[in-house]
C-alpha cells in the first residue's frame, strides 16, 4: 500500500520507510548488498509528480494552419511532430532518471544511519511510522462516487474499510472527508456488477468500482467480527428483560441506525 501511494505522508517519511525496508532486507549498508529497484522501495507516482506538465499548444493563425496543411500533405509536418514527441519523451526519461538517482541517494544516506539496527527493530520502526496515519489498518479501494447534481461527473475517492469505520478520502489526503461507524450503516451491497451501494442513515452512496465483491465481503467480515466482540448488555442477561428505552442509545461506536442488512454481492436493491 505504501508503494501504491495509499499511505499519504511526506517524501521525507517515504524515504525513511524505504531505508528501513533496506535495513530489514539487507541488514547494515554495504556496497555489495543487493539493491532492489527503486519502484520496490519508493512510490513511483511521487517521482512522476515532479516532472513538468505537458505544455498546452496555443492556437495558431489561419496562415500557419494553411502552411501546416501543405506540409502535412507532403508528410513533413507529421515527421516533425514525431521528432518533437521523441525528443520530449527522451527529455522526460532523462529527468525521471535524475530524480530517481537523487531519491535513491537520499534513501541510501538514511540507510547508513540505521547501522546496527536488527531486522525486528527495523520492521517495528517501519510499522510505527505508518501507524501515524489515522487510516492505518484500513483497506483502501479506488472508487468513483456518483454525485446527484445533473451534469456533475463522478468524484474519484478512496473508500477505506477499517475495523471500526468506513471512511472516504480524497486521494493523497491524510484526513477523511467523511467517516461512518458501522452503527450508522443500515445496508450495503451491489446494485449491479460495477456499482456498490452504501446506505448510511438517510443517505444512499453509490460507488462505481471494479471491486464490488471484495468490498462487500470485507464489510461483512468486519460486521461479523464487531458483533462477536460486542459484550452482552445487562438486559440481555436478565431472565425477563425489560423493554429497552428508545431514548437510550445502545453501547458501541455510535448510535445504531437500525439492523444490518447485508445485500447479496451481485443483485439489485429493492425499495
Automatic annotation (TrEMBL):
Positions of region (Disordered): 230-271
InterPro entries, per the entry: Actin_motor_Myosin, FERM/acyl-CoA-bd_prot_sf, FERM_2, FERM_central, FERM_domain, IRS_PTB, PH-like_dom_sf
Segments forming domain FERM: 1-233
Gene3D superfamilies given in the database record: 1.20.80.10, Pleckstrin-homology domain (PH domain)/Phosphotyrosine-binding domain (PTB) (2.30.29.30)
Pfam families, alphabetized: FERM_M, IRS
Name the UniProt record assigns to this protein: MYO10 protein
Organism: Rostratula benghalensis (greater painted-snipe)
Gene behind this protein: Myo10_3
